[in-house]
Amino acid sequence: MTPEENTPYPSPESNERPAPEHFDAAIGHVDTLWSSGHIAASAARGILYSIVETLGAFVGDPDLPEHARAGYQGLLESARELRAKVDE
Description:
The protein is mostly helical. It has three helices and no strands. Helix 1 (20-36) runs antiparallel to helix 2 and helix 1 packs parallel to helix 3. It is 66% helix and 0% strand.
């Protein structure tokens, strides 16, 4: 098995979406860092902006199966709620 085959992330050339678990982990990390004061507000906003934009594109994809859409929509709402918390 090559190192490329052993990675949990899709290759940049593929059309695969990252698994929802990756977005959930990213949102969780930003939340933990923000709550502990170990990340600047501007950095948290930038990361969350990217997550929200990416998830929004996934949710808007007409080829996305409904079961997957529901998962990405939940993550999108979580990211938006955290962004609102950071913006306070």
